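Case 411 in the screening queue. Each case pairs one protein sequence with one candidate compound; here the compound is pyridoxal-5'-phosphate. For every case the pipeline is the same: read the inputs, emit a complex structure as tokens, and attach any notable structural observations.

Predict complex for case 411.
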Amino acid sequence: MSHPPSTPAAEERRISARVSGITESATLAIDAKAKALQADGRPVVVFAAGEPDFSTPAHVVEAAARACKDPRMHRYSPTGGLPELREAIAEKTRRDSGLLVRPDEVLVTNGGKQALYEAFATLLDPGDEVLLPAPYWTTYPESIRLAGGVPVPVRTDETTGYQTSVERLESACTDRTKVLVFVSPSNPSGAVYPPDLVAEIGRWAADRGLWVVTDEIYEHLVYADAVFASMPVQVPALREHCVVVNGVAKTYAMTGWRVGWLIGPADVVAAAASLQSHATSNVANVSQAAALAAVSGDLSAVAAMREAFDRRRITMTKMLADIPGVTCPEPRGAFYCYPSVKEVLGCKLRGRRPTTSAELAELILEEVEVALVPGEAFGTPGYLRLSYALGDDDLSEGVTRLQQLIGEAHR
Ligand code: PLP
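Case 411 output:
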């Protein structure tokens, strides 16, 4: 079949304004480019991925294998999730964050991503503004825009350890503000808010009558003296205006299984479930069975991963601190370092002068075959995100290459 030649105007009509406005996930794009180079035999060190490099625990895989043979798992199941999984998530939430929820306040989703998408779609009307502390994970603004909302970035930087404050949030708040996105531990910065600041921000949101969408997916990955605190636990008054997003991906090395959930007031959960019933129905039952084994088991697998991540975190932070022009506050959670490279920009490097972190990341990939994600992807140009969810030797090799390359920079 022949198609008429496409012109830019025709192209625009083919894809809706809503969807053509979305930017492809930069992290997934860089990861794909790096993996393609690796497949060509190039020794690329990849700091781009946002996933644990460990295998899913054996008992989880076995539970999934058993579920494959259970005919009940071969059929549609309730959109909101297998009843036993919703119950186990409610119990796990009580155990881990102290939030008391009923199973009907839990909606099982295809990963944390779908939980976020559904939370924004359920809460936002066109033009509603959402306060989004930056640097932010790249999916939030796109998910907010898809729901008709307007993301309002509230910038933070390394001088406050990438933590925002009530004053900054207040100055970005308007009479159109409906939601605050709160993420601790944070991707990409690794910031972990102390419990008193979580409480202060939560009280402010409650007083202001805002909703809070809080992403707790890295709750178990905190280091040194950092402690995780759940906002609706710190501020019970928020409970009726708060959606908690979580999932098994990071805690149990289960990124590919695609199981997450949202927790919220029963009317919000029912509305989001209704949306999901038309979009994707139930999450694959075999994955739900795997998630059930994960959340009802103990936390020994994540304790072992946390130990490895902590070791790598310390190595990476020290090695980055040795690079002239690079400033990196110590990350306290998740598995990312987020150094500022503002002082390197504009310097001469291998015959080029990168002036943005995006150009610098491209140069680094081309010259020393190290893949990392530029701050542009997280709403704060001038930074780079490096994941330390990779083997210790690769980590040292990759950061050594960076040290050598950036060490050559001169004005
Ligand atoms: N929230 C944050 C902060 C993340 O970094 C990620 C993944 O990178 C997710 C949510 C989504 O995780 P998933 O959809 O794999 O459950």
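Case 411 observations:
- The chain has a mean pLDDT of 94.
- The CA atoms of residues 105 and 266 lie 5 Å apart.
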